[in-house]
Amino acid sequence: MNVDELVRDALREQAAEQAPAGAGLADRVLAVRRRRRTRRIAALAAATVAVVAVAVAVPVLDSDRGNDVRPADVVPKTEVTAHPDQSPPRDLIAAGNTALAAYYIPKTVKKTSDTAVYQRTYWLLNQKTGTYEKTTKWSWVAVAPGMKTAAVLEQDLPASRIGLLDLTTGKVERWIPVDHGVGGLAFSRDGSKLVATTYGENPDLRVKMEGSDGWDQKQPSSRTGFHVLDVASGKGSWSEVALGSENDPDEPMGGGFLNSRQDFALTGDGTHVWAGHPMGDIGKQFFDLSGAEVSVPAKDKYLEWYVEAGKSPDGRLVAGQFAGEKWKTSSWVVDAVTGKRTEVHGQQLLAWVGNSSLVAWDIAKGGKNEFHQRLVLVTIGSDKIVPLSDFRKGSDGDAGRWEPVFAER
Amino acid sequence: MNAERLDSFREFVDTRSSALLKTAVLLCGGDQHAGEDLLQTALVKAAGRWQRIDEPEAYVRRILYRQQVSRWRLKWRRREVSVAEPPEAGTGVADAAAAAELRLVMREALSRLTARQRTVLVLRYFEDLPEADVARLLGCTVGTVRSTTHRSLARLRSLAPELAALGPADAERRSAPDYAPVEVRP
Mean pLDDT, chain A, as a whole number? Predict the structure, then answer.
């Protein structure tokens, strides 16, 4: 007997012994959809953290610096500042022009017997001392490239105003009032525009579902649309993005599931607004700046909403999902035009450092726990892995796990 | 989704879920719970697109295979699978008993492959699909299917020395210079 014949026989024998599927599977599947308890799907390729769609990479410098919130003395930086003994970090972590501008530690805080809020406590980099300092003022922080300015939201979401925080003084320089409540913010790559995702209620609200021990996202999502704002003037427009009938909770076969927080971001060139659409045909949706839905721009078709690093600064490569072929933990980097995939070290790609390196979460070589990750610097075509922080403890969702926020420095 | 579509979804699940579950459990290395999870997740996805799916079974199977190989976490979260203790080998054991024992050994070894390795073997030897079809389903090249098959069989032999006496499979006889690197779990 050959080994393949035995494989075949063993598989067939095992299949023959298999008990039939239990009754009621169709109802269970439909119930899952009805209750939109599909976090597992939304989180298939990523940890169940919210997407922090801050601008993360080195921008193409805009000749018109009138609207540029970056300091004038930005010069390319090449050095790596690592603290492989710190988790969460106390002192600045950076690689090249990309710095850990902040991090947050989320906690699900019970509000009533059946509601809670997934709350972020931020630690922002004090640029004078080079250390991270805790602040409880903000529910959301997006750091602009240059790390001079952050856009912030106060604690009760959705917020009716956006603060522009001066990161050198720690003071809010300006408030931008908005007529639709905002739950999330992301800068354009050049820092001149801000996209603010609007929600009818707090997107971080958690509820107790019948038959569930833990906290679930509230469904359907209350997302209403987005503002695109000019940072310098504070002016902009709001566009409604309807969830559509597919998101009707009474519609058991609807394909329009959205996470309760499904924030918008600007594409690398700032010409489109996009967001993940986990159950949609291509998993994402694109809009022009006036809010009209458009088909996916050719150069953005490989973007994945749950891969924080997004596109490389030169727009040629897109950070992709987990690969795990060549190495136990690795990810794909995808050619934005051809779709050709290259495997790079790193379990989860977080931010580009130039056009060929990335900051990623990764486990130790031979590590057994997929959640014990540290920040590392990896480079396409290189086996070198440079640790930047110490390992995170606990499992996904455990208290005390920190989540990074990167920005161009 | 109208009542007609809803009925067609229910009918599909009622008539095909037992067969699909067999595949799902094999993909998960014999772990019944993981197989049920995998199938349920695939059906939830399919339900979302029911109106647009022409060939439901092919669609659900494709989700099963791809999901399994992309859900790398399962590689580590795999629960221990209990396999009946193989009987003591010895002289005088009837051929049938020896063959049954080998199948149990093989089953245990299969459960210890990576999800990707196991998926390729299930597609090749349980579903009897040609290499080109496996490549299309998994979104990889025929060369990768070949190399994964070859390495998976080699891995089975290393996991279970009892299999050493077996003859080589066709896939092992063929030289394959285009072997892509494949994860081999220690």
Answer: 84
In chain B, the residue whose alpha carbon lies closest to the alpha carbon of A251 is B1
What's the predicted TM-score (pTM) here? 0.61
Find the residue in A nearest to B20 (Cα).
Answer: A21
Helix, coil or strand: residue A388: coil
User: Is B179 among the domain residues?
Assistant: no
- Reported as a pLDDT band with limits 50, 70 and 90, residue A245 is low
pLDDT > 70 in chain A, percent: 83
- The answer on B168 and B96 residing in a single domain is yes
pLDDT confidence bin for B159, thresholds 50/70/90: confident
Q: Does position A404 have pLDDT exceeding 90, yes or no?
A: yes
Structural domains in chain B (count): 2
A240: Cα within 13 Å, side-chain hemisphere: 4
**What percent of chain A has a predicted confidence (pLDDT) above 90?**
63
Average pLDDT over residues A192-206: 96
CA distances from A21 to A127, A348, B157 (A): 59, 35, 32
- Say whether A29 and B40 touch across the interface (CB within 8 A): yes
- Whether A262 and A274 have beta carbons less than 8 Å apart is answered as no
**Domain, as residue range, for B143:** 91-173
Q: Terminus-to-terminus CA distance in chain A, angstroms?
A: 64
Task: Show Cβ contacts of residue B156 under 8 Å, excluding neighbours closer than 6 positions.
Answer: A3, A7, B106, B109, B110, B113, B163
Q: What is d(CA A94, CA A66) in angstroms, rounded to the nearest whole number?
A: 27
Q: Tell me, what's the pLDDT at A35? A: 57
Nearest to A234, CA basis, from A161, A148, A167: A161
Q: Please check whether residue A171 is in contact with residue A135, taking contact to mean a CB–CB distance below 8 angstroms.
A: no
Residues of A in contact with B72 (CB under 8 A): 322, 324
The verdict on B129 and B66 lying in the same domain is no
d(CA A8, CA A15): 11
Please name the residue of chain A whose CA is at the shortest distance from the CA of residue B73. Answer: A370
Q: Report the distance separating Cα A2 and Cα B95, nearest Å.
A: 16
Domain ranges of chain A: 23-305+398-408
User: Are A26 and B41 in contact (CB < 8 Å)?
Assistant: no
The pLDDT score that the predictor gives to residue A48 is 28
How much is the pLDDT for B133? 87
User: Which CATH number goes with the domain that contains B120?
Assistant: 1.10.10.10
> Do B166 and B138 belong together in one domain?
yes
B103-115 residue pLDDT tens: 888 998 998 888 8
Please tell me whether residues B11 and B40 are part of one structural domain: yes
Q: Is B166 found in the same domain as B99?
A: yes
* Tokens read off for A23: 């009754």
